[in-house]
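Issue 218. Parser rejects a valid record. Input:
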Amino acid sequence: MVPLPIPREAAVTEVPVSLSPLVDPPADSEPQHGRLDSAALGLPSVLFCIVTGAAPMTAMLFNVPVAVMGGGYAAPAAFLLATVALTVFSVGYIAMSRRVTSAGGFYTFISRGLGRITGVGSGVLIALCYIIFSAAVIGVMGYFAATSVEEWTGWSIPAAVYMFGGLGVMSLLAWFHIELTAKVLGVLLVSEVLVLLVLGVGVMIDGGAHGLSAAPLNPGELFGNDDATKVFGSAAAGVALFAAFWSWVGFEMAPNYAEESRDPHKIAARATYGSVIGLGVFYMFVSYVYVTGWGLPESVQAVKDQFEGKFASAFYPLSDRYVGSPLTTAMEVLAITSSFACAMAFYNTGARYLFSLGREGILPSVLARTSRRHSPIVASMTVTVALGLYVLGFVLYDSSAEGALLKLGTWSPLLGVLGILAVQALASAAIIRYFLTTARDGFHWFTTLVAPLLGGAAMVGACYLLIDNRTVLAGADDVPFITYLPWTVLAMFLAGVVIAVVLRSRSPEKYAELGHFTLADPDAEDPASEPAVAVS
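Output the parser choked on:
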């Protein structure tokens, strides 16, 4: 359905602190600076943009085996616990998104709650993390494209060809209206969900290898799982829980599309809750189908067989057995398209963070320039260049398809996820302080205090699990990239802190406006008022 045009102001060259409704320019008008296309996306489109960032197919094919390695057949319980934790986190997150509407997402939230210095540090960190995560998933796509095409046709084409080809397509889509990207993401998302549901129905109708059991959903079975210990020598519930949290990365992107949403306050809430709870139920179902289809003890051995190269994914023998080889082929194809869709979703979000940081003068203001179709074109092309250089570095390090998966596609997500989880923890603290100080009229003991407190604690715990188990998750313990992972995240954060401190000294007026660009802000707070919390 084509949305009715909404009146819009003429193009602006100065960035205002708040925006009033805008007027559609003629088709041949000059690109606007600092504006995205309001009312471009409805609820389904926003859901497509953010849920594809979580990449259901990729998440299940890769993260379920990792969760099984840590928690044995109780992997579905890890997804259950993560669903609860992230739903609680979302309560405060949604309360904040109703007050602050901006493409800046976490950067804007943290700036409002914890101060501009902490906010800018978080904004730079999260923008880089999304770009890094996009590069990682491009590596996964390259691996599956190279191996699958060689299996189907016998043509041995380097994974780098697929990786840079995929990046080219993402860059091309970035030139067009965001609604086109949302439609592409939507088609791919629906396809991968349907294929996994068909597999699930096949297993459930058959009854699995040994019948249905409630044991996989018991959180108590995660700790010291005997089956996982027998196969892998040890079992770490932390690995299972981290794999579960990893599967949701991207769910928090709804506020980043607020400026392009038809009803940002309602859509952000519905899209976030819908993605968290919907993905949670879906992940629990698919992981339950996996362990039930193999059988509880056998499900752990199947993961070990996958790691030893007996098959590309432990899901493929299940689809052969319970549905048939056509479904397996469909899964192989969708492993490629799902990775592409995921990479493109992170590409778009990274571009919007750069757009927001450029619009406020933290990064060069040219990043805030938009195309005639109101897409953040300069920021998008900057992401393209950054991704190209990052991917090229890994290709030069290891050009094999296995290197694309095991290095670019495995090491980089650890860096990206750690940064994202850390920023989510800071966002929880920011939400609490914002409603205790600036927005006292919106304070609620549960939604703006207890929920973000519990959600933040869960994010801190997930960060600890990642750091403590990073060598196991990366399959390497003597690589500087893995050894210095936490310090790399800290360095990216401190780079933003330095930028903010310099701006405060050299341009106090510009500094005073940081984090206060918004479409609608009922608080109408004084942009010069700085919360007392800052980075020492």
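Fixed in the parser; the record now loads. The chain has a mean pLDDT of 81.
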